[in-house]
Amino acid sequence: MPTLEKQSKTISRLNFRLPPEAKEKIERAAIASGLNVTDFAILALVNTAEKVLERQHARKLTDRDRNIFLAMLDSDDEPNDALKKAFAAHKELAGK
User: Fold this and answer.
1) CA count, 13 A, side-chain hemisphere, 37
2) What is the number of domains present in the chain?
3) pLDDT tens across 57-88, in order?
4) Shortest CA distance to 61 belongs to which of 51, 49, 50, 73?
5) What is the reported pLDDT for 21?
6) What is the C-alpha to C-alpha distance for residues 5 and 16, in angstroms, rounded to an integer?
């Protein structure tokens, strides 16, 4: 089974210290997963990083906020002067 490290053309290092109990638990989990410790650690760290970043970018609305947002989308209101001015400024800055 090829390791994750061998699949990458360039390798960066990440060094850290951890308590012996944590290291032993990680080693046992890696063996149970059929991975070496490096691949197990990379997989676990990347999966956790992805979850953290997804949570950071996700927006959760309350029912009230959702209802207000949807009502605004359904509204036939015309843009006000401030919005027209902001759009014109953006258009000028974007060169369009």
Assistant:
1) 7
2) 1
3) 888 889 999 999 999 899 888 889 999 999 99
4) 73
5) 98
6) 18
Two tokens, residue 34: 């059929």
Long-range contacts from 41-48, C-beta under 8 angstroms, 24+ separation: 42/4, 42/5, 43/4, 45/14
Contact 69, 61 (CB under 8 A): yes
Query: What SS3 string covers 55-89?
Result: HHHCCCCCHHHHHHHHHHHHCCCCCCHHHHHHHHH
Q: Over the Cα atoms of the chain, what is R_g?
A: 25
Q: DSSP code of 42?
A: H
Structural domain for 36, as ranges: 4-8+16-94
Asked if 3 contacts 40 with a C-beta cutoff of 8 angstroms, the reply is: no
Q: What's the rounded Cα separation, in Å, for the pair 38 and 76?
A: 57
